Amino acid sequence: MRFRIRTLLLFLTTFFVSQKFINAQIRLPNVFGDSMVLQRGIKIPVWGNSTPGAIVVAKLGNIQATAKADREGKWLLRFPVFKEGGPYVLEVAESGKPDAGIRLKGILIGDVWLASGQSNMEWQVQQAKDAGKEIANANFPQIRFLVVEHSKQVRPQTDIAAGRWKVCDSGNVKDFSAVAYYFARKIHQDRRVPVGIIQSTWGGTPIEAWTSRDMLLTSPITREKTLSNDTLAPDREDFVQDSLNLVRFWNIIYNPQNNTDKIVPATGYDDTDWTAVEMPNLVKGFGIGSYEGMVWLRKKITLPQSFEQKDLTINLGHPEMNYSLYFNGQEICKNVWNSSPTHSYTIPANLVKNGENTIAVRIAMLWNGGGLNPADDIYITDGSVKISLSGKWLYKKDLETALPKILNYQYYPTVLFNTMINPVIPFGIKGFIWYQGESNAGAAYDYRKLFPMLITDWRKRWQQGDLPFLFVQLANYMKTKPLPSESEWAELREAQSLTLSQPNTGMACIIDIGEANDIHPKNKQEVGRRLALIANKMVYKQEGIPSGPVYKNYRKEGNRIRISFTNIGLGLSTKDGKEVIGFAIAGTDKQFYWAKATIEGNEVIVYSDKVAEPVAVRYAWADNPECNLINSENLPAIPFRTDEWKGITQK
């Protein structure tokens, strides 16, 4: 029966596709639209579909270009070089059929950048630092964004699933990539040209998902895993079901099930069979293993009479990204992907009771994470008296529909290249900005090959030469360790630094603005600014120092090692004005010790009383290093090591 249904569906699909082919009209892919930005300074490519053999006539402003559709109805034309400006109208039609053509308006000519990567590039303006103020002031009509909708396929696609160009204003900017927006804003302000961003991002994804099949098959690192994708097919049941499950998965997280939001937070709800847990605590402290799903927390707290009829402030520290807070049965907040810039909320006076009050939190436990960060203070206050919320809480899982199992095919090799990169080629661009690597940290040594592969792959396919490729090095993250140690994240940063050997690449170091308890640091303004500094220097040929000190070489002087740097500007110093920290030194036994370091002119002298015959130095070599060396532009020194000893990710 299933075979007959599939056969019928295949017949109907073939029939309608054939009818569409026979009655074809002019069509442009979704990367083109009203309010888009087209690339200045190059011959502008425009492509689409039409009747096979038809002559396609396009007009941009007063300039006309033509092309002939091939036997499949595909065509591509190029306009001559335009300078920045606009707005223009683009008209495209088959010759002799102007009334059946396409007309796109509000088009600007400027610089277009493709912004891609995982969640730190995807992180929205509304989720980042100073969101309210930034959104209110986002009046930049010459900045435009096209946010490519998430999509995954096992074969290269010719069009993006969805997405349209939007003008940057207070209504639209909140959904844009924060890093890409702050990059675009500085480029626009510095260069006085329109800026377009094609945003193609997906959180949690590895670099292999963004690389083409052809390129992945060239490396023994990725060949076998890529070939395993051949067992997939677009209509394979689990591939289709995974997309459906993904919709259900997030629907459950965003929308309380079984009417729990009305029942569980109520003051009279019976929670006598719930389990006690000390809060704040993370998922491991709940003793529920690798549980993934929705967990409810409740706490009854007696407030002093002085709190009655007052607006109160409740602070939850730093909860895991998706949660809702209730007070005496009323929803106080619904936080989606850390959409709140802080986790302090106002409890209206009319909800506050003298005596016992009930706090409830609905929180998503995802990817072996979740809960309230133990490092944070949780409390409720009237502004003068603060009452701790730490201590005994009650929790209950499985009150809601279980989350469906997600196979996460977006993590598979090449599936995102197929749907979110390939369809926008060969749209004219100025270059790429990239923020990714967290998902590859466990195999950081392989990233030395994988990252240059992606850069080469994309440049080859765009056929615009060695397009500028600017990227962000991983920030400092996780718990600071008391002693020098090995680090997957340090090795990933090293792989990123080594990629600078590729032509026309630039790296923004952000080792000083990460957050120990958040893989998504909030200060995206500085990330975008530092990317723009590199673009101004490397791409737009502006004078200046675009990044922090870069390790150049070293030489031994007895029991000391002298380190030389480039990119020092007017000199080296420390960010806090204190002594230099972040250096470690080792002898032939490969045992590292924290080192003393002093600045002498344009060099740093490193030594330790515990290492009589030093042979190696490392700087900022940790998940979350304490380091403070900067140049005269207040930009941080890039992490490095002088040794080439085998790392923990090297097989």
In words, what does this structure look like?
This is Sialate O-acetylesterase. Pfam families: SASA (PF03629). One of its GO terms (molecular function) is sialate O-acetylesterase activity. It is a single chain. By secondary structure, this protein is an alpha+beta fold. The protein folds into three domains: 109-230 and 415-547, SGNH hydrolase (Rossmann fold, 3-Layer(aba) Sandwich), CATH 3.40.50.1110; 260-397, Sandwich (Jelly Rolls); 550-641, no CATH class. 20% of the residues lie in helices and 29% in strands. The protein has twelve helices and 33 strands. Strands 1, 3, 4, 6, 7, 8, 9, 10, 21, 22 and 23 form an eleven-stranded mixed beta sheet that branches. Strands 11-20-12-17-14-15 form a six-stranded antiparallel beta sheet, with no helix packed on it. The longest helix is centred in the N-terminal third of the chain and has 21 residues, at 2-22. The radius of gyration is 28 Å and the shape is globular. The two termini are 49 Å apart. Mean pLDDT is 91; it is low at 1-23.
